[in-house]
Design brief:
The structure holds three protein chains of three kinds. Chain B contains 13 helices and no strands. By secondary structure, chain B is mainly α. Chain B has one domain: Orthogonal Bundle (MetI-like fold). Chain C has helices at 10-20, 25-60, 65-70, 83-91, 94-125, 131-143, 146-160, 166-170, 177-188, 192-200, 205-216, 218-234, 237-242, 251-259, 271-300. In chain C, helix 1 runs antiparallel to helix 2, helix 5 packs across helix 12 (218-234) and helix 5 (94-125) crosses helix 14. The radius of gyration of chain C is 25 Å and the shape is globular. Classes of the chains: A alpha/beta, B mainly alpha, C mainly alpha.
Amino acid sequence: MRHHTSRAARALAGLGALAAATLVVTGCGPDITGGGSTPDADRLQAPTEKNPSGEITIWDRSGDLFEVFEAAIDDFNEVYPDITVNHVAIDIDARLQNTLITGTDVPDGVFLDDAKVGGFAEFLWDLSDVLAPYTDEIAPQKLDVNTVDGGIYGVPFDLDPGLLFYNATALEAAGVDATTIETYDDLIEAARAYKKAVPSSGPIHIEQSPFLGQLQLDMYANQLGTSIADADGQVRLESPEFEQILTWLDNVQKDGLGTRAEYLSPTDIGELENGNEVFYPWAIWFDFAPQQLLAETSGDWRAMELPSWEDGGARSGAMGGASFVLPREGENSGLAWLFYQFLMFDEAGYTPVWGPNDVYPDGLNTSIPSYIPAADPAKPLFAPLKALGGQDLWAVATEAGAEIPGTAPIPTWWAGAVDYLGNNLQRMYDGDMTPDEVLTQSTADIQKNLIDRR
Amino acid sequence: MTALPATRSAVPAPRRRWGSTGIRRRLAPYVFVLPFVAVFLAFSVYPLIFTARLSFTNWRGTGAAEWVGWGNYTYLLTSPGFWQSLGNSAVLWLLIVPIQLAVGVVIAVLLNSAKLRMRGVYRVAFIVPFVTPLVAVAQIWVVLFDQKYGAVNAFLGLFGLPDIGWLTTSEWAKPTLALLFLWKTTGFIVIILLSGLQSIDGNLYEAAALDGASRTRQLWSITVPLLRRTILFAVVLQTLAVFQMFAEPFVVTQGGPYNSTTTAGYYLYNHITRADLGTGAANSFLLVILVMALSLLFVRLLRAKD
Amino acid sequence: MSATITPTPPDELVERADTGSEGEPRRRRGRGAGLHIGSHAFLGVLLVAFLAPVVWAVLSAFKPANDIIRSPLAFDVGAFTLDNYISMFEDVPIAHGFLNTGIVLVFKGAITLFFAPLAAYAFAKYSFPGKNLIFGTVLLTLMLPTIVLIIPLLLEMKTLGWVNTYQALILPGSVDAFAIFWMRQVIAAVPDELLDAARMDGCGEFGIFWRVIVPVIRPGLAGLAVLTIMNIYNDFVWPVVIASSERMATLQVVLSTLAQNITGNRIGADYATVTGELLAASSVALIPLLVLFIVLQRHFINGILAGSVKG
């Protein structure tokens, strides 16, 4: 009892004293007091020798995409036979940060979500010089998201244009012609008409995951030429554009015109299959749902450009996407650049990625290249989709992609903002916050917790 | 057979005979704990000290680390997110530990019974969740508890009960997560309790049975008190586990909805993954202090009955 | 009274008492049988609840990957396929996972199982200056969330040149604090008379440990072995960070690499295939541990402790 606590207290005190003493005495540990290196020295230059050789370590997420890249390595080696590619499937989210901070076993190239590039910029090569020949022909949005303080820190991989997926069969049966939709006002009217015919429905998908909801919000904002943060990393939520978007979303929910579910959760899939949910404004990668998950309505779905927010406005915005980054501490970053250059800008490279291959016999159709010459509407890389009733998704997606306006770089605190903006958006759907409150409160919270603390 | 003294006094022996072994006896404990201490010094002390230094800076993994004094600590202690995470962990503790100990003791007692057939089968079955990778069962959890199409709500619907948003509302996400944690770790606790049961002298039960005590009475008057030490041990362990819990919220709810399942461990994890290393370091020390205080409290409470 | 410490399973004794005493056996036996049905029902329900999700995972691994997501609760045996297993064996380095997990288990397990009870013995049966301080560090180790120490530990490994090596997987935390904590408990319950008697017999300090303590706590040791094995097996925070190549990946690293595509935000067209592979990999990963447990449990859940005082 008292004996125990006094012993324990003594032990704690002893421990504390020991720790304090060592703290003071020891200066051990890595040097965390030094400054960073100068930016200009960090521009990667391409190797100049005729036949470069060496070994590079490339990190990718495991899964089908890994297999696709793995196959592309053979094509790469036909052009560069002496570069050995050590292709590793790895848990990038769990490993990359620690690896870069401690400088242990740093890879030469890493596949990274666009939203995360900004956060690692200090560890990465500035690719402005090597990308210079191509920048005019890369989708502006992809360049913008990779740009930090004027430098470009990722090789853009895929462009993920937002599209409006709709259940053509169900809509036709209800007498609604989705192809006439041009603005979001039109969309809400179409939803009303559908709901009249099918009273139990909630025609438009409303995203319940805070993260994906915020990502989708970015897509809508992109259409209007804005984003959550401006080029200086300042929050610009309190603007007429965001008000318009949130008011529209709020109306959809309040008028009972939406099905609120997490992306492809059992509820979502169930409502998509039974015709209660017929409009899905989402990135192109939703298309894997009709292909693989929606057994009953496969073939009923079609894709079209997103509606615009005003007459004649942009008919698409980007949602998601990834790039390849090259850590400065990689051993053979120059060679890694050659690999990505081949993959993204050489026809022999991007065709096996998006075109028919062993993994995807009809091609990879969940994204399109961000390199505009590769994303030519007249020269499809992937085949028409049976699940979309044989529709030529390539044409729709590439034309939509061409409309995507430029944007500002994604702020380093984007993921952290989900706690505030993502959650507040959900509260709005719950009816606990108004659109204005969401914007004001989120701005304040982000400023206080994420920006000011840096 | 020699009758042994009932008290703990040392058996007297001529000092001469023990000579050098006296020194050996005094050195022995140090030698015995040396391996642990060596490992601890090598792989825990340095990181600990580094982390302590870090907690007074705003290091983000790169560049200079500026000294911010107690800034990180004050930020945390005044941050609603921090207190919410502690509150979440506390509620989860209440939902998990009492139930787990109660059910665990009953299971352990039953499994200890020689009369129970298929004992082996039960014992294996109860440990299966503990050795199953969480990611494998996270999916079915989400499916079962889905609001519209999940089996749980379907079952409730049979009784006319409304659909509950198990994982989509902040009220129900914690119990649902608690259930997952209970499911996963109870087998572990049962093993510990079983081991504790082994050391209870069976003669005590015989005596009680002869006195006419029912099985339940025996459970309360003999088993539980004698298991007290083991139960205390299990409580301390699970308290640590609940506060550090991170895998379950990470895989199933990502800390939501509205941070209702952001445990102290998950909150800490977020700091680290967002490269807010200074705050993360401060956070971890606060957590350690809290857990230490709790453990001391338990020790005091449960030992007080001695 | 003899100094044997042989707890007998309580129920055996109750039974003996049941049949032994006069005038009451029928009532007692009846009540005993009634309780027993209740107990079986209770255990039965729990059994189903504990096993059902795992059975789901194992069976689902045999479904076509898309069906796992589309109709999770429907099992069409006719459509069962080995595709998930095949693609798992092709794409996932599961063999490496097993090998590395096995190596870490053997070495780290051996280190803990030997040195932890030894240290626990010192804490339980000796008093020496600094004892509380050092035991405090044991508790501290338990209370510190691993995630916090990752970066400095990784830096240390880098300095030592131990990144992506077996030493790095095995040594940090090799003398497990939980094991010490538990064994101290177990050993403290061993009567001091036994130790004193052994000392009188001329046993050295280590000899007391090896020849008296260890046999007496054998069931506890076996229990510790089981739990240590499981904890090492389940450990994923550190291994994910330190094993930077396929060659060194443990099972949990392999699984977490797969799972990254699914947890949290399901942005990925291969969501279904990866789920299938993950379930297949998990099923395979489950088996050795289960077998191990089945084999080992007979050793520690026995009801009979060996141990007696030599007269």
